[in-house]
Amino acid sequence: RHCQHLRLLEKHCSVPSLDQCIGNTSAKMSEDQVNEPEQSSLAKDCTKRHTSSPLEPTKCYCLKKQVTGFIWAVCRSVVPIKLLGTPNWRVLQANISKLVNLRRFEKFSLKQAMRNVKLSQYPLLSDECSALLKQKVLEGWIFWLFSSFIMPLVQANFYVTETQHEKNEVFYYRKSTWANIISEAVTSLRDQGYQESDVTSVREIMKNRLFGFSRVRFCPKERGVRMLANLKAPVRLPVSLPLQSRGLRKVCFGRHIKYVYYKPVNEVLKDWHLVLKHVVANKPEVLGSSVFNYNDVYRRLVPFLLLLKSHLSLKPGAFFFVADVKRAFDSVDQEKLLKVLDDLDLEDEYSLRKVFQVLCINKSLCNISSWTLKSKENVGCLTAHSLPGVLVNRQVQVRKVRKQLLISVLKEHIKRNVLQVGDQFFLQSVGIPQGSVLSPLLCSLYYGHLEKSVLFPFLEDACQPSPGFPSEECSDPKYMLLRFIDDFLFISTSKEQASRFFSRLKRGIRAYNCEMNDQKFGSNFVLGLCPDRLYVGDGTSFLRWSGLFINCSTLEIQADYTG
């Protein structure tokens, strides 16, 4: 049957222009409100959902009730009434609504699609058939309706995605709206140090390297979109000339187009990640104040807090502030990072071994194979009973990684990171790849070098007496600096030292292209700023830092579950 689905789409999910949507945009209206008339225009919903600032493009999503209304209107227009089962209309519409309202990672089963659908309400099914046969036919029809009609209808008309600020909630964007959002995001990429490149240039870059490139998608956030790069999946490029297979690439044919396939970036870089982890484990000073997990935080922070508690009776208190580097990964100076890597004094060669283990876990056996770095410390650790629960621990393969190849691959990864956005390619000229298995470690090395060169010497001199601060307040301060990748936490018993260090960070460090995010400062003392990361709960003030709450009065640490 003929269906004017575009007219129905415009009726139920119309999207005004951004100029028409200039309105208030702070609070999202609940979709569960009752006693309010249905609205067929998104312009009215946009005005009601937001109340304080100009509308962002990413706010022009379609409400789930609008999407449900569109799907049901198309079903009514296309599907014969007898197949919908007239008395079951409300039931089917309710089940479609449940499908549309699913959150990310939730599943929708045939049983849910069949909920409250009564076999007796389908007169089309012959009474001569057995009840079991009629049930099978009805299940087949409902399965087809949801999987082969409704789902393709949604995919053809909407871009469905999660957002950064709503976690697992799913949002529906009209394809035309999403195209405008992506167009603006791509334009901003060019202003952020990404150079557009053509397929021929990308093919030249790929010709002699071991790994591929990253594919990018955009995730809406409260203001604008965030770029998410996927470096875990294999990628392909169309080729116009035959390329020889080198074991790392596979040439395939599909729909008369010849493609060359490349291994995922992160899969190839695993070896280099192992080597770098080994190097920094032997030279922890190159990481500065870096911590990588909450175990590291506990080992570093708890002894210092215990020391503070023993001195609080003699001191005026502890002064905390937190700071976050603005666009930390995208602002890294590539040349300076390569110099930092050159200063690591790498060995000429590293040996990697693949170890096969059979483990006994909960009275069941499982096989695990992994690559580890072969060193003098662990060369004798291959006995089967050296680890609890390990039945077999056997080395099955060894390979070498030479220093020259290591430096070459790291330079290629940092200097020539290629991103694919739709059909366009971009070369990153500033910063390091986000989503790379190496990026957290490279970022920590970079800012560790910054601390060693700039911040630590400054802290040593930051507590000299000055006008307005008594000398006794600055004598022999106890302080600690921690950094979770790009998130700083500073604690000191000297307000003068904390104030000076805050001012130094706020100015930025131009030599490292490092600038702090003014919206993410927080402190427990007056610094002339609006603390975005100060949380007050049950009358107690906490400072947010990397998923933790710090009670600046009692020095207690709690997990931040506020989202």
Automatic annotation (TrEMBL):
Gene Ontology MF annotations: metal ion binding; telomerase activity; telomerase RNA binding; telomeric DNA binding
Reaction(s) the record says it catalyses: DNA(n) + a 2'-deoxyribonucleoside 5'-triphosphate = DNA(n+1) + diphosphate
Gene Ontology CC terms, in alphabetical order: chromosome, telomeric region; telomerase catalytic core complex
Domain of life the protein comes from: Eukaryota
Primary localization class, coarse: nucleus
Pfam short name (any one): Telomerase_RBD
Annotated Reverse transcriptase domain residues: 200-550
EC number: 2.7.7.49
Gene Ontology terms describing biological process: telomere maintenance via telomerase
Stretch list, region Disordered: 29-54
Annotated localization: Nucleus; Chromosome, Telomere
Alphabetical keyword list: Chromosome, Magnesium, Metal-binding, Nucleotidyltransferase, Nucleus, RNA-directed DNA polymerase, Telomere, Transferase
Family, as annotated: Belongs to the reverse transcriptase family. Telomerase subfamily.
Function: Telomerase is a ribonucleoprotein enzyme essential for the replication of chromosome termini in most eukaryotes. It elongates telomeres. It is a reverse transcriptase that adds simple sequence repeats to chromosome ends by copying a template sequence within the RNA component of the enzyme.
Protein name: Telomerase reverse transcriptase
Protein species of origin: Cestrum elegans (Red cestrum)
